[in-house]
Amino acid sequence: MTRRSKPSGWRRWVERPQTLAWRRTLQQIHLWIGVGLGMYVVVLSVTGSAVVLRPDFHRWLIVHSVPAVGTRLAGAELESAVRNRYANYTFESLREQSRPDSPVIVALVRDGQTTQRVFDPYAARDLGPAYPPILSVVEWVVDLHDNLLARDVGRTVNGVGALLLLALLLTGAVLWWPGRARWHRGLTTGRPEKSRRFAYRLHNALGFWSFALLFVWTITAVYFAFPEPFDATINYFDAHPSDSERPGDAFVMAIIRLHFGRFGGMPGRIAWIVLGLTPAILFVTGFIMWWTRVVRRRLRTTLDARLNSNEPVLGGNG
Questions:
Q1: Quick one: angle between helices 211-225 and 249-260, nearest 10?
Q2: Residue 44's closest CA among 283, 290, 289, 285?
Q3: What is the pLDDT of residues 78-103, one digit of tens each?
Q4: How would you write 42-81 as a 3-class SS string?
């Protein structure tokens, strides 16, 4: 009888990767990175979606032009009209722009507080605050997303987090492969249902289809925090360092625009808002898998052991 040779590691990876010991180790690494970064991923995912419309909020809420109808006030007449319109304030200064349809920004003081208002120099009317309060909220969300509200330290932490997310992505890509006979199952979620199985399939399918996008987001996040290695690499391949153009700059700008969703008009931005929630969904589905497969099973085992040993589960009088 001919003795069957043991399948090689590569063969086992292709056919039955679940039998490989190193894959189980990789699974644990993937699990604990995901659990450790869970809330961080959710915060970046939600805030990233929220700030996609940042330029639009500035365009919608800040008055950039006024109807150029009639005579535009200027000089002493403009200052007099401003003082009359804001009689309850102390006039401080005004700022005009060169375009005929530009409004005037007026600085005013009352009760020791300085405020800026937008003034129509044609109709001599107030157009609201120069910087609406909601934009402060938008910029707060942007700062939370970019710097974790901690400036340079937060940006560095974001960079380290992005490197860990990159490790999470790469380990997830390796773990996704279920074997040659079942690889196609990882492309679809199957019928929606309230079960761990559906969470697993949703996690796998969403991870597969969003991998390229998540990879770009993660790499650009690393670049924002640590640009020096990227710049050094681009400079290394620059054949003409004396000129103002570098061969990799166009690519870097392209992926930055991709990161922020600066393409496709409003449909593209809406798509980016929805897709930006993908990391949060991956965390939720991964958490469900971990909770049902590991935590709940251990809790059940512990409970059964206590019941079998007649130990009080919730305490007792002894």
A1: 110
A2: 283
A3: 999 999 999 999 999 999 988 999 99
A4: HHHHHHHHHHHHHHHHHHHHCCCCCCCCCCCCCHHHHHHH
> 104 and 94 in contact (C-beta within 8 Å)?
yes
Q: How far apart are CA 93 and CA 171, in angstroms?
A: 59
221 residue type, one letter: A
pTM: 0.84
List the one residue out of 68, 122, 112 whose CA is nearest residue 90: 112
Pairwise CA distance, residues 171 & 34, whole Å: 11
Whether the Cβ atoms of residue 114 and residue 107 lie closer than 8 Å to each other: yes
Structure tokens at 178: 């279920």
Indicate the residue type of 158: N
What is the four-CA torsion angle of 152, 156, 157, 159, rounded to 10 degrees? 140
Phi and psi at 157, nearest 5°, equal: -60, -40
Which two tokens mark 30?
A: 């993937």
- The C-alpha atoms of residue 204 and residue 177 are separated, in whole angstroms, by 9
Summarised one tens digit per residue, pLDDT across range 212-260 is 999 999 999 999 999 999 989 888 888 777 777 788 888 899 999 999 9
Between CA 256 and CA 262 the distance in angstroms is 9
